[in-house]
Amino acid sequence: MNAGLDRRGFLRGTLAAGGALAFDITIPLRAGEPAAALDVHHWVVIHPDDRVTVRIPQSEIGQGATTALMQLIAEELDLDLALTDWAFYEPQTNVSQGNVYVHTSTLASWGVKMLFEPMRLAGAQIRALLLGSAAAQLDTQADGLVIDAHRVRDPRTGNGIGFGALAERAAAAPLPDAASVRLKSPQEWRYIGRALDRNDVPAKVTGEARYGIDVQLPGMKYAAVRQAPVFGGRLRGFDAAAVRDLPGVRAVVRIDAGPSGYTVPPTLWDVIDWQMDDAVAVVADSWWQAERAIEALPIEWDDGPHARVDSAGIARDLAAALDAPGELVRSEGDAAAALADAAQVIEAEYHYPFLEHAPMEPMNCTAFVDGRRVEAWAPTQYGDEALRIAAYAAGVALKDARFHLTLAGGGFGRRLHNDYVSQAVQIARQLPGVPVKLIVSREESIRRSYYPPPLAARLRAGLDGDGALTAWQAHVVQGTAVEQPYGFTRLAYPVPHVEMRYGQIDTPPGFAWMRGVGHTQMAWMNHGFLSEIAHARGVDTLAFQLALLDETRIDAARADRADALARVRRYRRLLEAVAARAGARPEGIGRGRGHAVYDMSYVPGYRNSCIAIALDVTLDGRGGLRVDDVTASVDCGTVINPQLVEQQIQGGILFGLSNALYGTITLREGRVEQSNFHDYRLLRLAEAPAIAVHVMPSDAPPTGVGEGAVPVVIGALVDAIHAAGGPRIRALPVMDHELGLRADA
Amino acid sequence: MIRLTVNGQAVELDCDPDKPLLWALREDVALTGTKYGCGIAQCRACTVHVDGKAMPSCQLPVARVAGKAITTIEGLGKTALHPVQQAWIRANVPQCGYCQPGMIMATAALLARNPAPSDADIDAAIGNLCRCGTYPRVRAAIHAAAALVEPPA
Fold first, then answer.
1. Residues of the domain holding B63
2. pLDDT tens-digit series, residues A356-380
3. Which one of A155, A173, A197 terminates a domain?
4. Beta strand extents in A269-338 (DSSP E only)
5. CB atoms B89 and A202 under 8 Å
6. Which range marks the domain in which residue A574 is found?
7. Strand partners, A404
8. pLDDT grade for A274, boundaries at 50, 70 and 90
C-alpha cells in the first residue's frame, strides 16, 4: 500500500511512521526498503526483489479503483498479483509532466471508462521494455520471451531474469510507440472480467487502512474550524483571549475566503470557480480540545446579503421562475399546438430538495508549510486540484508543493471541492514548521458543504384520441448551478412534439455535483410523470413504457436518429430483462412494483451504462413503507470485475433510496438547519432491501457503474409506491408525505 | 492518570477525564482504526468493546472506562483474524471501508452473545451507518461469520 517513508526527505529525522511521504521523494517506497526501487515510466515501480507497485491514477472513494485499474495494467504486464501492490499516483508528477496519467479526476463514474485503453497500453509498453531489456541481457530476440512470476524467461533455453534486474534499462529506454505494441484480445485475458478480491479489503477489516483522518506526523497539532454560518458571510472578528487559556489551545487563526477549486487552470471546467467563505480555526494539542475551544470562541460574523434566505423563500422563487417563460432549450414539432389539440392533457409539478453527500469520513486535511514549501495529505477526488489549491493557499510556486492522496471514507462528489485543503494549508502557513491536521466536525461538514441545488419542474403531456403520447412539455428551474441538469433535454421515449424550457434562480449555497448528478433530479421526475400518464390512461406503467419504446416512433429526419434508435432498443431490452428477472409481481393490499430504465449519457454520443430496475414496496397502511426487493439489469459494456460492478450497483441503489426517502437540506435565516445524522437521516441496515444485480454480457468498451443506479431506483420507487396504492410522490423526500393507501387503490 | 486495558495492554492516560474514549484511542494511544463519524453516537463508526460489550466511544468519557478492558479493531484479531474479519474478507464487504471497523466490532459482540442471529436480530443489533451501501454484504457476512464461529451441527 502507500505506506512509505524516505529518510532523505526534508522532514528528515522527524517522520517516524504512519503513511507519510516526505517532500523530495519521487517514488513511494515501503518502509525500510533500500532506495533502489525504480519508477518505470510513472505507471509502475519495480522493486529489487522483483515485486511491483502499480500507480493508481484515481482516488479510492470506495468504488474499487485500486483493484479494477490494477487489473488493467496487470493484464498486459502479466503481473503476478501475489507480487504486486499499489500506491496512489503523485499529483506533482502528473501536473509537472503533462498529465502523464491521462485521467486523474475521480467523478462521473469514468475511471475505468477513461483508463481502460491508457492503462492497458501502458502495461503493454512497459512489457515491451522489460522484454527488450531481457533480450539484450540474454543476447537473444525479444520475440518468444515470456513473463512468469515477474521474471522474463526464454522458454527455448530456460534462462530468465527478474524484473528487478531489468528495471534500470527499462526505465531508461523511451516508451515504445503505441502502434508498435499489441494489446491482448479478450480471449487472452486472465484478469479482466474476473471477480478478483479487492486489494484494499484486508487492511480495511483490520484497522490498518489509513484514511486522511488517520495521517500522523511527529509534533502534529490538531485544528477545528468554523466557516461563516451564512453563505457569503464575512468574518468581523473573534475574541481569541477567551479561549487561549483553555487546555491544549495553541493558536486561533483566521482563514480567508477564496477559491476552493477549479480556479487555477488547466481544468476541464475552467468556468467553475468554487469559493469558500471566511473561517476561523483553533489549533490545539488534541482535536477534541480544538473543537471544544472553537465551540466556546466568541466569533462575530457579518452575515452579508443572504442572512434572511430560507427554504420557503427559495420555494417561492422557484414557483415564480416556473411562471416565467424561461429559456427555450429544445424544441421539436409544435408542442403548444399539439397540447391544444390533445384529447387529454396531463400536468404535474415535481420538486427536488437540496442534499448533502455525507460521506462517512468527515472532511479533513493534514498540512505542513515551511518556508517556500507545502506538503499536504487529504482524502480528495481530485488530487491535481488539491495540489494546486495547496500551493495557492500556501503562497508557494506549484513546483514547491506536494500533495498525497489518502484513502477516502466515501466521496460522492463532495471531495471534488478542496476547501478543506485550502483551510488546512492556510492554518499551517500561520504555524510554520508545525504539521497540522484539520478535521472538520460532522456538523460543520454538513452545514458548510456544497450542495446539489433544489429543482422544480412543470411537466405537461398531451395524448391523442387513441391514447398515444403526442406532446411533452417540460419547464425546469433550479437553484444556482453551473449548468442545466444533465439529461434534462434528452428524453429517450420518442415523442413527436417536444418543448423544453429552463431557468435558474439564485441560491446562496455553493453548487455541487453528487453521485447521480442532475440525471437523478430529472430522470425520477420523468419516470414519475410517465407513471402518472400510464395511470391516467388506465394502463400498466411497465407496459406503457415498453409501448413507448417504439423504434417506429422515432422521426426519420432527426439528426440524432442513430443515437435515439440505439437508446430505444437498449432501454427496451433492459426493461424486458429486469421484468423477467424480477418474476411474479407482489400481490396483496399495500404491495406494488415499480419499473424504470435510464442511461447517464452526459452529452450526445457519450456512451454510458444503461440500467433497468424493478422495485417492490410494501405500504402497511399506517404510514409505514418498506422496500422489499430490488432487481437491477445492467449493461455496462465489458466488465472488468463483476464483483465491483455488483457493489457499485448495490451502493447506487441504496444511496438513491436513502436520499429519496430521507434526504433534505433546508435553510433558515441563511443557515443550514441540519447538522448531523439525527436530523440528516441515512438509510440503515434494517431498512435495506434485498438486491439482485444482473449484468448483461457485452463486448463493448466498459462504461461507468458508480452512479447509474441512483436516478433509476428513485423512478422505480415512486412508481412502486403508487402501484402499491400509495400517494403520487412529486416531491422528495418521501418521508415528508403521508403514506396511507389511496381510496382508489 | 486514568488506567485501563486496551487490546490486552495496560494503558495509562494522562488526559482530561472528560475526553471521549474515541479521541483518547486515536490521539493518545495512536490507534486510528476506530473512526470518528458523527460524535453523537449516531453512526457508530467508533464502536469498540468495553468489557466485551459493543459501545460507541465518541461520547464515552475516559474516566468512565477506568479499569475496564477495551478492545478496538486492531485488537480484535490480535493473533489471527477474527472469524468476523475472515467472513468480511471472503465476502469483500468493504467499499470505502470507513464504517467497517465499527460494523465488525458490533458484529463480533453480537455473535459473542448470539452465535446464530436471525435477520431480525441483525436488524436490531447493527445500527451502524454505511453510506456506500455495503448492507447486503454485511448481512451475508454476518451469517457467514456465524457459521464460522459455530459450525452447524
1. 2-76
2. 999 999 999 999 999 889 999 999 9
3. A197
4. 274-276, 279-284, 299-302, 327-332
5. yes
6. 519-745
7. A377
8. confident
